[in-house]
Amino acid sequence: MEQERYSILYSSPTGNTKMLAEAIHDTPAEEDCDYFGPCKKVDSDMFYIGFWTDKGNADAATLKLLEALKNKKIFLFGTAGFGVSEEYFQRILNNMKTSIDASNTIVGEHMCQGKMPQSVRDRYVKMKA
């Protein structure tokens, strides 16, 4: 039986999502990996797609990639610098799923809090006050 081909793509300006991508890359058989790296057009059977959160949704590069995929298996993983509740994470995932064509199958998802630069944190705290 032939092993399923996969790619691991991510968008990660701060390095948080890249760390998750590297952990995933260490798990499946590397010889079945078509591509590992930043978001770009590639062809595989299975996609592990990592994103960072931008205004309650995935970043623009990830959304563009998701919109282009058809008839693929997708595992979503992402980071959010602010908010640690499961409800917040699920809202982000639900927002981005609207960019995924119905022909695709989402096989799993994971979100966690990433490290946030202090300047960004200070801005959020100031906005909250």
Question: Summarize this, please?
Answer:
The protein has 129 residues and is of the alpha/beta class.
Description:
The chain is 33% helix and 30% strand. With 129 residues, it is an alpha/beta fold. It has a single domain, classed as Rossmann fold (3-Layer(aba) Sandwich), CATH 3.40.50.360. Strands 1, 2, 3, 4, 5 and 6 form a six-stranded mixed β-sheet that branches. Helix 3 links the parallel strand 5 and strand 6. The protein is globular, with a radius of gyration of 15 Å. The model has no long low-confidence stretch (mean pLDDT 88).
Task: Give the count of structural domains.
Answer: 1
* Uncertain segments: none
CATH fold category name? Rossmann fold
Largest sheet: 6 strands, mixed
Assigned CATH class: Alpha Beta
CATH architecture label: 3-Layer(aba) Sandwich
The shape, in one word, is: globular
**H/E series:** EHEEEHEHEH
- Tell me the total number of β-strands: 6
Structural class: alpha/beta
Rg calc: 15 Å
End-to-end span in angstroms? 59 Å
Helix content: 25-40%
CATH superfamily: Flavodoxin domain
Mean pLDDT: 88
The number of helices is: 4
Strand proportion, as a percent range, falls in 25-35%
